[in-house]
Design the sequence.
């Protein structure tokens, strides 16, 4: 039987995996059931699963990988991940089925939103709290789009309904530190907490409340992202608190009991189900129904037939509305000691989705204008959040460089106290340079690559830079050349090395932002040093045979296993570092793949411009010939052979520039 491939894109690792990983299981169950019923249009459905790793950038790259291969994609949880992938889906005219509650104020033709809108979860939860007499509400959320938009909406509703905002706190997504939140709660003395925390931050929050001696009877929490799945990890600390969902495991409906039975039969009786899992399961069936009705996998045909599709789901009757959202119920539940929910209240009928906060039902002539304005609200919050993150990263990088500057200043002061001359300062800086170069054992610890490096300064202190760093399974390779020689060049080289390490440790993966932030920091230090130094710099990101090259430096030499040479020009991939304050518009990226035996050679102009007694340069052609001739050898042997040929070429001539070489071969 032929196959139809679909994508499943969720976090199987990172802070969101606790919530997202079970959605993959639910989607796979639906696919298996459909295949047992004969599949779709005479074909079996075949899932391709990708891990978003709780990182918007990983979601983006995974979406780019999936879309050309699949008929549709089911996935994402946070609004950060959804907003990261949305431009790719829109550009490719592909369909994403999104199973989680979100902030609304979005209505893309490329997305079917099967989770709750604010009026289907956040609004009824707040109304119920106020009806129970909890009028002073404290808002706690993860610091990203959904919580910030939801809080803005909640504050407006509190004012409208006569409640009172007792306080508001945000924590970074994934944080488990709530000391400052507990202090704010004690000072505010609220009646209840409204929580929009996400991921494993919830574990830290409920345990912090319990350890502080704050029971649910004293200060109840109404949560938007606590379900049966998270409760397995939180345990008794959450008992007595509340949540609002469109589905709870103990809903006594035939469809829900059937889903629970089939899920446990497949994955084990210890497993639980929740609202996002029910949505992940159901949306596969809704896509299947739509494609069956259209008798086609074409996006436009499926999009049209999806509108109005109904299904009796584990969460009750669902109907896809014209705005690509779902008409669904809501329920208020209280957490029991067995970590299930007692359902305390439910919607009297299906609730229509109002992603535009009811403006779409207002019926006045400028509704479309107001909706356009509303759409900019979450995007502005999203953009501000990204800016805040980059600002914090820049501050951390600047602090790291400031610390490095202080260390260098302290070293100079110590040398002055001991009445050492400049020659001693130069010698110490040279030693520092050699100390921070990657050691052989570090290079040997990268099993995928055979790597050998070499650097020899023309004077006591050179301005060449190279490094090989490993972080979270990826390898970052850098090579650069600071203008000039001597102490200033050497110090600037050390600054660059520290800046690269700091940005990598802070999780920066976007090449454009990486080089732009690094450049800004180096530029400011160059201005402070009152020097005219700058440097060429190329960075390579390696993962599983894929190399991504960015930044302006000498040509990269790409070598295939048979010794065939390909020269890669970097002139359009960047701009000299430290010369201008902002180089973001100049930064680009080039990608290529390495098969076993393939590799690259990086070098500085000290190699190609090495001069013999006749005034001739060693040149790029001789370098390429030497590489090709010795490529059958190991990386260290290739390095030794090239250095030997350069020395033989220059003879007794003085080396006028630093000599740096880096050889990498795919094992």
Sequence:
């Amino acid at each position: 039987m032929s196959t139809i491939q679909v994508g499943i894109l969720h976090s199987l690792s990172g802070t969101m995996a606790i919530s997202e990983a079970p959605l993959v299981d639910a989607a796979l169950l639906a696919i298996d059931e459909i295949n047992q019923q004969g599949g779709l249009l005479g074909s079996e459905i075949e899932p391709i699963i990708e891990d978003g790793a709780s990182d918007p950038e990983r979601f983006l790259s995974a979406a780019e990988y999936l879309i050309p291969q699949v008929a549709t994609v089911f996935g994402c949880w946070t609004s950060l991940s959804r907003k990261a992938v949305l431009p790719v889906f829109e550009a490719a005219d592909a369909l994403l089925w999104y199973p989680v509650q979100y902030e609304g104020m979005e209505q893309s033709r490329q997305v079917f939103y099967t989770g709750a809108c604010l009026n289907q979860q956040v609004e009824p939860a707040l109304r119920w709290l106020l009806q129970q007499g909890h009028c002073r509400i404290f808002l706690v959320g993860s610091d990203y789009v959904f919580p910030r938009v939801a809080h803005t909406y909640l504050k407006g509703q509190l004012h409208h309904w006569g409640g009172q905002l007792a306080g508001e706190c945000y924590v970074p997504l994934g944080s488990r530190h709530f000391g400052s939140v507990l202090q704010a709660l004690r000072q505010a003395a609220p009646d209840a907490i409204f929580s929009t925390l996400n991921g494993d931050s919830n574990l830290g929050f409920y345990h912090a409340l319990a350890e502080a001696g704050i029971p649910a009877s004293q200060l109840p929490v109404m949560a938007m992202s606590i379900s049966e799945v998270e409760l397995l990890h939180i345990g008794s600390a959450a008992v007595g608190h509340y949540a609002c969902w469109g589905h709870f495991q103990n809903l006594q409906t035939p469809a829900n009991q059937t889903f629970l039975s089939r899920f446990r039969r497949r994955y084990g009786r210890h497993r639980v189900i929740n609202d996002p899992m029910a949505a992940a399961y159901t949306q596969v069936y809704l896509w299947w129904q739509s494609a069956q009705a259209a008798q086609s996998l074409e996006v436009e045909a499926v999009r049209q037939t999806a509108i109005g599709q109904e299904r009796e789901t584990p969460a009750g009757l669902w109907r896809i509305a014209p705005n690509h959202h779902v008409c669904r119920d809501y329920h208020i539940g209280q957490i029991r000691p067995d970590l299930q929910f007692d359902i305390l209240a439910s919607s009297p009928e299906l609730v229509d989705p109002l992603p535009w906060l009811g403006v779409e039902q207002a019926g006045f002539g400028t509704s479309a204008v107001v909706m356009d304005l509303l759409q900019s609200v979450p995007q502005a919050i999203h953009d501000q959040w990204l800016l805040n993150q980059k600002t914090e990263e820049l501050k951390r990088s600047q602090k790291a460089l400031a610390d490095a500057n202080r260390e260098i200043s302290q070293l100079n002061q110590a040398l002055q106290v001991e009445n050492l001359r400049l020659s001693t300062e130069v010698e110490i800086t040279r030693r520092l340079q050699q100390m921070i170069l990657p050691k052989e054992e570090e290079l040997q610890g990268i099993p995928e690559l055979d790597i050998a490096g070499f650097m020899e300064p023309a004077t006591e202190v050179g301005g060449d830079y190279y490094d090989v760093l490993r972080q979270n399974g990826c390898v970052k390779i850098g090579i650069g050349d600071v203008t000039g020689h001597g102490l200033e060049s050497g110090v600037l080289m050390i600054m660059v090395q520290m800046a690269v390490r700091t940005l990598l440790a802070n999780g920066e993966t976007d090449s454009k932002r990486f080089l732009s932030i690094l450049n800004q920091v180096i530029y400011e230090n160059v201005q402070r040093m009152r020097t005219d130094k700058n440097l060429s710099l190329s960075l390579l990101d390696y993962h599983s045979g894929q190399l991504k090259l960015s930044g302006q430096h000498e040509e990269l030499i790409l070598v295939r296993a048979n010794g065939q040479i390909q020269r890669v020009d970097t002139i359009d991939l960047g701009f000299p570092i430290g010369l201008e304050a902002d180089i973001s518009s100049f930064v680009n990226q080039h990608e290529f793949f390495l098969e076993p035996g393939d590799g690259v050679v990086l070098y500085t102009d000290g190699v190609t411009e090495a001069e013999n007694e006749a005034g001739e340069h060693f040149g790029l052609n001789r370098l390429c010939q030497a590489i090709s001739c010795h490529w059958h050898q190991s990386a260290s042997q290739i390095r030794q052979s090239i250095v030997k040929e350069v020395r033989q070429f220059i003879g007794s001539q003085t080396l006028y520039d630093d000599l740096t070489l880096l050889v990498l071969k795919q094992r």
Remarks:
- The chain has 19 helices and 25 strands.
- The chain has a mean pLDDT of 89.
